[in-house]
Design a protein that fits this description.
single chain; 123 residues; mainly alpha; two-stranded antiparallel ribbon; two-stranded antiparallel sheet; 6 strands; 50% helix; 11% strand; elongated
Length: 123
């Protein structure tokens, strides 16, 4: 299954929500496999995101990126935004078979979490 790497963060948040629930074994196995696949891709995404921040942020005297009010001080915001969007739009292949809603059993999940998992859960 292909997914844009920028969508992984929202998917990870939904997975964190559902992974705390008791799931039937088939669903638990599938979601555990999905978590591992997403973690690997998200790690690569974060490494590249930090490289962009390093490249485009203004640096302090110590050579490290300047952070103001919890935000990196980006010098060329337009170029940064262009490359960040390009990074976020990269499609990656996630090995996952869509799981049926019926396989989830009686799990309680918020609509927001379900929305973030919509690519992975079907009829």
């Amino acid at each position: 299954m292909k997914i844009k790497i920028g969508e992984l963060k929202n998917t990870a948040e939904g997975l964190n929500n559902i992974m705390g629930e008791k799931l039937p074994i088939k669903a638990a196995y599938a979601f555990t496999k999905l978590v591992k696949a997403i973690q690997n891709e998200f790690k690569l995404y974060e490494e590249n995101r930090m490289k962009l921040i390093e490249n485009f942020s203004n640096k302090g005297e110590d050579g490290k990126p300047i952070v103001i009010n919890g935000q990196y001080d980006i010098g060329d915001k337009q170029s940064f935004a262009k490359e960040y969007t390009e990074l976020s739009n990269i499609e990656v292949e996630i090995d996952f078979t869509i799981i049926s809603v019926n396989d989830l059993g009686n799990v309680n999940i918020s609509p927001a979490a379900m929305l973030s998992l919509e690519k992975f859960v079907g009829d």
